[in-house]
Amino acid sequence: MTSPALHVEGLSKRYGRIEALRPMSIDIPHGAVFALLGSNGAGKSTFMKAVLTLVRPDSGTVLIDGVDSRDPSSRRSVRYLPEIIRFPGMLTPLALHAMLSDVRGCGTPGELRERCGQLSCEELLERPFSKMSRGQVQRSAIAMAFAGDPGILFLDEPSNGLDPEARISLRTMIRDAASRGATIVLNSHLLGEVEAVCRMAAFMRKGAIVASGEFSSLVKHTGRARIETVEPGRMSEFLVAAGSEVFVCDGGVEASVAESAFPALVSAVASSGIPFTSVELRSESLEDLFMRLAGAGSE
Predict the structure, then answer these.
(1) Quick check: is 1 in a domain?
(2) Domain range for residue 135?
(3) pTM of the predicted model, to two decimals?
């Protein structure tokens, strides 16, 4: 059995009386784009920092590609983009990348130029950080994080300060990195962007993981089925006569139905003689899933 890219077991962290991380365990497979989802203060950023030993956990084991995270060699192929970025103002992206490459023992200016090209910020390569806007600093930081072929990336609110064009480029870079085998751990409050790149997540609340796995295994049936039809009026009448509660929507109707009764509904619609193009069970959206598992009213 292949070992996971990240193995976490019993990880915990307290700040005085505040239990920032309750003992938690999780495995993240190689090549996954994995989201950490939760409200402010749920422990997502602390989780990243504890995994990378940027804060010292009180207990637990963390293995990065099978190597104990306390061993500096475990982080050789790791990149971390923090939520709050502060670089020395006199440095340029090229100069900082060169320093980081010396520490890692690998990396070239060409790698950084390639990533800056993807983010349309090549003109920033030799500009001091003190002469950049917040969005420009963020683009430069993302380019440095993705430069080369990192094995695992921890991205904490990476879309902060980015304009729509840069956000689109970031999504492409995340997908490309995953296709090359990288593992991405993403913390973001932008659920639309999470849904565009992730298929797996851990939902966190008050320092604990309350659910994790693929979205498809976590969502619940909403109690409705959607029927796409060019004759919503006739379809509504038919379904109401059959005993369903009906809701008219764009492109068709929705009917209340238990999951177990869905096959019978499909058969009824198919035999109705009313033209339709599809019938599907409605499942929770990622927003619905977030509110049920990690939102303020989820306890």
Answers:
(1) no
(2) 6-217
(3) 0.87
